[in-house]
C-alpha cells in the first residue's frame, strides 16, 4: 500500500482541543477543495509505502499521528489506520467533512468549509468541530451539524500572521454564544511548525 505524502514532521498540535500535544504530522497531498484562505501548499507528493512512513516516524518518541493535508480522507483507508494502530499509534485526523472518515481513528477534527447540512450523514459524530472564521461570517447552526464534544471558532490567519479583526470578531461571538470556544493557530504565534 502506498500514500502520496506531502511532508512528515514532528511538532505540537497547534490547533483545537489537543493544542500543545506532541504529534507526528503526516500531511497527504491532494485536496478536493480550494479554500481561498488555505495556508498550506499540499501540491508536492512523494509516493511512500506504509513501511517507509513507519521507518520515518518510529525514531521519534511520540505515538500520536495527525493525518492532515490537503484532504487526508482522499487517501486514508481503514487498512492504513489499522497498520499504524497495530504498531502502537493513536491517530487523529483533520478533515474538511466532505468524505467519510475511515474506522479506527481516535480523534476526529472536522473543519467544515461548505454544504454543512451534508456533513452529518457522512460523519455522525466528531471530537471537535473547528470553523475557520473571518470577520462577518455567520455563526454556524449547530443543530444541523455532527454531534461534537467541542465547538470551536478559529480566526482565519493571513499566512503566518494573525488578523486581529478576525480574532476580535470571534471573541465577541463566543462571549455572546458561550457553547463555542476559541482555537488559535498557536504554532504560528510561537514560531514553530
Ligand atoms: C490545511 S487544513 C488540512 C485538513 C483539511 N483539508 C481541512 O481543511 O480541515 C488544516 C486546518 O487548517 C485550517 N486552516 C487553513 N488555512 C487557515 C488559515 N489561513 N487560518 C486559519 N486556519 C486555517 C483549516 O481550516 C483546517 O482546520
Ligand atoms: N503545529 C501545527 N499544528 C497543526 N494542526 C493542524 C495543522 C494542519 O496543517 O493540518 C497544523 C500544522 O500545520 N502545524
Ligand atoms: S479543504 Fe483544507 S487543505 Fe483543502 S484547500 Fe481547504 S483548508 Fe486547504
Ligand atoms: Mg497547518
From TrEMBL:
Entry's Gene Ontology molecular function annotations: 4 iron, 4 sulfur cluster binding; carbon-nitrogen lyase activity; magnesium ion binding; S-adenosyl-L-methionine binding
Protein name in the entry: 7-carboxy-7-deazaguanine synthase
Physiological role: Catalyzes the complex heterocyclic radical-mediated conversion of 6-carboxy-5,6,7,8-tetrahydropterin (CPH4) to 7-carboxy-7-deazaguanine (CDG), a step common to the biosynthetic pathways of all 7-deazapurine-containing compounds.
PANTHER family: 7-CARBOXY-7-DEAZAGUANINE SYNTHASE
A GO biological process held by the record: tRNA queuosine(34) biosynthetic process
Complex formation: Homodimer.
Cofactor descriptive note: Binds 1 S-adenosyl-L-methionine per subunit.
Keyword Chloroplast attached: no
Record-listed S-adenosyl-L-methionine binding positions: 37-39, 70, 111-113
Residues that, per the record, bind substrate: 12-14, 27, 68
Binding site for [4Fe-4S] cluster: 31, 35, 38
Keyword Lyase: yes
CDD domains linked: Radical_SAM
Lineage: Bacteria, Pseudomonadati, Bacteroidota, Bacteroidia, Bacteroidales
Binding residue positions for Mg(2+): 40
Gene3D superfamilies: Aldolase class I
Residue ranges constituting the Radical SAM core domain according to the UniProt record: 18-193
Amino acid at each position: 500500500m502506498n500514500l502520496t505524502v506531502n511532508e512528515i514532521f514532528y511538532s505540537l498540535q497547534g490547533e483545537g482541543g489537543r493544542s500543545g500535544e506532541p504529534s507526528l504530522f503526516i500531511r497527504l497531498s491532494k485536496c478536493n477543495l480550494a479554500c481561498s484562505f488555505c495556508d498550506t501548499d499540499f501540491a508536492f507528493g512523494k509516493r511512500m509505502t506504509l513501511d517507509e512512513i513507519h521507518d520515518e516516524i518510529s525514531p521519534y518518541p511520540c505515538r500520536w499521528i495527525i493525518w492532515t493535508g490537503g484532504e487526508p480522507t482522499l487517501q486514508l483507508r481503514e487498512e492504513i489506520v489499522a497498520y499504524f494502530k497495530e504498531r502502537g499509534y493513536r491517530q487523529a485526523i483533520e478533515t474538511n467533512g466532505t468524505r467519510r472518515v475511515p474506522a479506527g481513528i481516535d480523534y476526529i477534527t472536522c473543519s467544515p468549509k461548505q454544504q454543512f447540512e451534508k456533513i452529518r450523514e457522512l460523519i455522525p459524530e466528531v471530537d471537535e468541530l473547528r470553523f475557520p472564521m473571518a470577520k462577518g461570517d455567520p455563526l454556524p447552526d449547530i443543530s444541523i451539524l455532527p454531534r461534537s464534544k467541542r465547538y470551536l471558532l478559529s480566526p482565519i490567519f493571513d499566512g503566518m500572521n494573525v488578523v486581529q479583526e478576525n480574532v476580535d470578531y470571534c471573541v465577541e461571538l463566543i462571549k455572546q454564544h458561550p457553547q463555542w470556544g476559541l482555537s488559535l493557530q498557536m504554532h504560528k504565534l510561537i514560531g514553530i511548525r
